[in-house]
Amino acid sequence: EWVPKWGYKGRNKDGEGDWIVEIDEKKEKEGKGTELGVRSEGRRDRKEKVRRNERRQRANERKERPKGGG
User: Fold this and answer.
1) I need a labelling partner for 2 at 20 to 30 A (CA). Which of 10, 31, 56, 64 fits?
2) How far is 30 from 25, CA to CA, in rounded Å?
3) CB-hemisphere CA count at 13 Å for 24?
4) pLDDT tens across 13-59, in order?
5) Which residues, 6+ apart, have CB-to-CB distance to 27 below 8 Å?
6) Whether the predicted model's global pTM rises above the 0.70 cut
């Protein structure tokens, strides 16, 4: 069955609605694994990928523009 990669019910949101979340012991020992952080980690990663892609897109548009005026 076809599933969209992005958007509504997309594959990129797998695991965000899970009722149980596996916790990395190394992060937990370092104190970085709070409950809220673990639950929103997937969404945070997805949003960072979107921001990174937008930055690359803007950089490409700047490179694409003609230099000089004539």
Assistant:
1) 56
2) 9
3) 10
4) 777 777 777 777 776 676 655 556 666 777 888 889 999 999 999 99
5) 33
6) no
